[in-house]
Amino acid sequence: MSAPHEEDDLVPSSTPGYKPSAAKSVDEYAKLDAEDESLARWKASLGIVPGASAAAASGPKVTILSLELASPTLPQGKHLVMDLQNPTEVASLKKNPVTIKEGVEYNVRIKFKVNHSIISGVRYIQVVKRAGVTVDKMEQMLGSYGPHPNGEAYIKNFDTEESPSGMLARSGTYNVRSRVVDDDREVYADWEWSFKIGKDW
């Protein structure tokens, strides 16, 4: 069970005065301003076409497939990808820390699939703690998407960051809680993992 203040860290920030609009189905969005040709083309590029929600809209609106740490300094052929559809791998993420090289630029890349409906205001939130103390929090907007016309996944690259360096940074393990949540606080994924800072990858 998570502590109440930890849950507060994972609540998306809000913009004063902004109130999310009521959720609409893909068909409802498709019929809005149907006479506007340029808008119709844009909506079609998002997979918003009349009849698109005729298929059963069951299951989660969004499936988070993987989270990757990408860096130009990674050795050839080495990939730091968390397969979030593999329950065994997800269970081991907390116990088996990922090693991140100190003082290098890297970015987080998330791969997800929109199954039905339109998503908006969806964010990736990451809280990093060491010895129980919060040392970093990241909140990145994924954006707004409809189901991909070909059923393909979307990939979102986050801003480039630099890993900490020095002996102090290299001591201990960093524990991370990651969550994908929308403006209505609907949680699409929530998992824990850990990393260490090392002299090399």
UniProtKB/TrEMBL annotation:
Function: Regulates the GDP/GTP exchange reaction of the Rho proteins by inhibiting the dissociation of GDP from them, and the subsequent binding of GTP to them.
Keywords linked to the UniProt accession: Cytoplasm
The keyword ATP-binding appears for this protein: no
Domain of life, per lineage: Eukaryota
One biological process term in Gene Ontology: Rho protein signal transduction
Protein name in UniProt: Rho GDP-dissociation inhibitor
Stretches with biased composition (Acidic residues): 1-10
Location of this chain's protein in the cell: Cytoplasm
Alphabetical list of PANTHER family matching this protein: LD16419P (PTHR10980:SF3), RHO GDP-DISSOCIATION INHIBITOR (PTHR10980)
Organism: Lentinus tigrinus ALCF2SS1-6
GO MF term set: Rho GDP-dissociation inhibitor activity
UniProt KW GTP-binding keyword: no
Chain spans, region Disordered: 1-23
Primary localization: cytoplasm
